[in-house]
Design a protein that fits this description.
- This protein is an all-alpha fold.
- The protein has a single domain, classed as AhpD-like.
- It is globular, with a radius of gyration of 16 Å.
Amino acid sequence: MSLEALRDALPDYARDLRLNLGTLATEPALTQQQRAGTFIACALASRNAIVSRAILAEFGPQLSAEALEAAKGAAAIMGMNNIYYRFTHLVGADYPNMPAKLRMNIIGKPGVDKVDFELWSLAVSAINGCGMCMESHDKVVKHGGLGSEQVQAAVRIASVVHAVAATLDGEAAMAA
């Protein structure tokens, strides 16, 4: 499935999502690698097979093999970290001071430019709702030279990809 087919699969009430997918596919604030990796990481984080396949087909060829693995890795590691760090942040007590004792090697050696990996991690963290992770990744990308416009672009991609997945899931549930 292509991005165009994904857009066509959306119901009429989600026409804004169709338009936003088209616009964000060529978002000029991000490099091609940043944009493609953000789409892929967010698609995987959306947990919708149709969205993941369509976005991988559209944006996968725009990435090197290493960058594609890193984008997938950002979705995977944030799937774990967002749960853990959201818990420590919300519960507090002694938990924030305790070592996580979770392997996170990909963060130190993602296989691509650190700023791009952190941007993908930030976008996935927005989908997963981990404020602590969003703040942390925002600081890293800004320290790495990205500005608010690039961060906003990545989060806009995250919001639209997630909304597309939620809409398709909702439509499937109503049809069942």
